[in-house]
Amino acid sequence: MIGTLLNGRFRLDDKLGAGGMSTVYRAFDETLERWVAIKLMHREYSSVPDQLERFRREARSAASLSHPHIVTVIDAGEDDGHPFIVLEYVEGETLKECIHRVGPLAAAEAVAYAIEIGRALEAAHGARLVHRDIKPQNVLIDPAGRAKVTDFGIARSLEGDGMTQAGRVLGTTDYVSPEQALGEPVTEQSDIYSLGICLYEMLSGEAPFGGDTHVAVAMKHVREPMPDIRAQRPELSAALAAVVERSTAKERDHRYATVGRMVDELEEVLAIEAARSGEVTGEATSVLQGLPQGHGEVAPGRLRHPRRLLALVLAGLVAGAVAVVVLSGRVEQGRTGSANPPGEPQLDRVALSGDAIDDFDPAPGDGTESSESVGNVIDENPSTVWDTETYQFQFGDPDQKQGVGLTVDAGEPIAARRLDVVTSTPGWDAEVYGADEVPDSIEGWGEPIGAENDLEEEEAIDLDTGDEAYSQYLLWITSLPEGGRAEIAELTLRR
Prior knowledge:
The chain has 495 residues and is α+β, with helices and mostly antiparallel strands. The chain folds into 4 domains: 5-88, Phosphorylase Kinase, domain 1 (2-Layer Sandwich), CATH 3.30.200.20; 93-293, Transferase(Phosphotransferase), domain 1 (Orthogonal Bundle); 305-338; 357-494, Jelly Rolls. 31% of the residues lie in helices and 22% in strands. The chain has helices at residues 43-46, 49-63, 95-102, 107-126, 178-181, 188-204, 214-223, 229-232, 238-247, 259-277, 283-289, 301-304, 306-336; strands spanning 5-6, 10-18, 22-29, 34-41, 73-79, 82-88, 93-94, 129-130, 139-141, 147-149, 156-157, 357-360, 386-387, 404-414, 418-422, 429-435, 450-452, 458-462, 470-479, 487-488, 490-494. Helix 4 (107-126) packs antiparallel against helix 10 (259-277) and helix 4 crosses helix 11 (283-289). The chain is globular, with a radius of gyration of 26 Å. The termini are far apart. Mean pLDDT is 83; it is low at 158-170, 306-315, 322-328 and 330-344.
């Protein structure tokens, strides 16, 4: 198949891997001139109705999800009897390959990856989807070190019975939950169990159970107690061992009820492991620095807020310089009898509450746009971001949505003068609006009070309210940068 051109657009370049039902290739999209991954269904299965439906359902399931830790589905189609799915191409290695290469991971690194996988599962579960095959082979590590979950081939909607026959086990037995092994109904807690097994393997270097057959391994998940991770890694904290134990409990009543609860505890464990070791490296660094406010405060401030520490140092240097300038000015004033002319008046930063930011995605959007990360833009930590979904079209098309944005609740009516934006994806356009209440549509905001095209990494958007005071402000993204996704690290409203 190498060299084949699918639908006159996707040229297969290299084989990346193969499974029982499909093969994955790296391919070049000749229309958009970019690399993608193509999952191509084997011809012998494409004529089997339930297998074909399962393959198509994978495309639908994954396409309904948009999350920085889930591999994006770009397209799907069929060419000469070959159904295929077009996916985001992630250059790097699988988590399984990483474990094989380096052995047991550092505790903080393993916890960081578990947090990212857990956040991906939160998004899937929020869309009423259970993955059912969470394993290190289905987690890709991108060049930036981030974990991305892929392969929703046997994902099932919680709204119906799906394609699974009663009593049939789907999933990889090294990571299968007891209820899956017994052919019982699966829930979000089944994914939690598999994530706990992945965490155990990251920490120990190997899966907890082995056997001569898949059935033997599956039955060990049902009957045998989980090995104590601290028997292999005595240096691990009791808090981390407790998360492994609770996530892999045989009885679902003893397991985490939601993956969000597991992620919350993992965030605290990450801070504990960072405090115990005194340092973190790799992906653990960015995850630790991106923890929500109020989480992980036990970690040393120099690890959680290195930029803040640098800012304090710079502030001290600036203060010293200002003192020298002021003293020099006073000496000069004594000599000449005149003072330096006053500078331009500075704008005051508007103090915002922790829930002052909200996403704005009116119809024809689905009403939400990365709502779980909106607080990152006011946490004074530029390493944490809010980002839009990845769009395959540009805003402004009459048949598509016109934009997305973030609302800022000033807490009281004010006449704002400027909105400062810090972005790691420069090159997009934006407008700013003001209103007394957040309307249901962009038309309800009236005329923009500020605008800026081709935003730079640090942009100050001047606002003209006409002396009107507004309590709500909207940053409305009207065009996207290259790549189809805009990130915002910090927003500051000034008056």
